[in-house]
Amino acid sequence: MLIPAIDLKDGAVVQLVQGERLAIRDDDINKWVTRFAHFPKVQVIDLDAAMGRGDNLAIVRRIAGSLTCRVGGGIRTVERARDILGAGATAVIAGSSLFKNGVPDLEFAKALADAVGPDRVIAAVDSRGGRVVIHGWKTVLPLTAVEAVKALEPYCSEFLYTHVDNEGLMKGTDINAILAVRQATSRRVTAAGGITTQEEIDTLHAHQVDSVVGMAVYTGTLKLPEAGSPA
């Protein structure tokens, strides 16, 4: 399944290359909300909140009330998770907050799962150079994505695995790295990071992996299915 991405920064929809260089900015958020309205799942990430540089909470709440979406970025407390879910999001995506002192923070993971239900928690595990990265991909941890997934599995219903090495480059993703994560867990897996073609989406779908696509959608490289067609 194709899951379109809405990344928010400074009050606009953006696409970044490698999480840093701005490639696309569109202030017309409603245009993308309308365009993605027929998708069964949309991913919304508040990049400012993720980086600890303010937030786009009002916009996130508005989108969560309009789309069937999962929301991430700045989910560091149970209170923030409840706020986002209360606005209408189907699940929250927690990332950096699930790690502490270089290892999975199982205490917070359990607290979050206990508070909102593991079925509404998606654990984000991002990997660069074979190691988990957090804090906007700036901090490298001494563990692999597979190790992280195995530790966090009891506290979530799904993993969002981002292969940062390929993020935003429009050169395709690393299917083998994604499938290694898929094989490490019984939970649902969604993949992101450089997914560019329908062939990649179909390959991952055959292995029960959903695909989050950003840059290829916003540049028009990947044609979106119309309303009434399978995503």
Give the CA-CA distance, first to last residue.
6 Å
Instruction: Tell me the Rg in angstroms.
Output: 16 Å
**Total count of strands:** 14
Contiguous runs where pLDDT drops below 50 for at least 5 residues: none
* Major β-sheet annotation: 8 strands, parallel, barrel
Strand order of the largest sheet: 1-4-5-6-9-12-13-14
Total of helices:
9
Q: Can you tell me the overall shape?
A: globular
**Total tally of structural domains:** 1
Task: Provide mean pLDDT, rounded.
Answer: 95
Q: Quick one: CATH class?
A: Alpha Beta
Strand content: 25-35%
Structural class: alpha/beta
In CATH, the architecture is: Alpha-Beta Barrel
The CATH topology corresponds to TIM Barrel
**What pattern of helices and strands is seen along the backbone?**
EEEHEHHEHEEEHEEEHEHEHEH
**Which percent range fits the helix content?**
25-40%
The CATH fourth-level homologous superfamily? Aldolase class I
Output the keywords.
231 residues, alpha/beta, TIM Barrel, 8-stranded parallel β-barrel, 29% strand
Report on this structure.
With 231 residues, this protein is α/β, with parallel strands linked by helices. It has a single domain, classed as TIM Barrel, CATH 3.20.20.70. Helix content is 31%, strand content 29%. It has helices spanning 29-35, 47-51, 57-64, 78-86, 106-116, 145-152, 175-184, 198-206, 215-218; strands at residues 2-9, 12-17, 21-26, 42-46, 69-72, 91-94, 99-100, 103-104, 121-128, 131-134, 139-140, 158-163, 188-192, 209-213. The strands form two sheets. Strands 1-4-5-6-9-12-13-14 form an eight-stranded parallel β-barrel, surrounded by six helices. The longest helix has 11 residues, at 106-116.
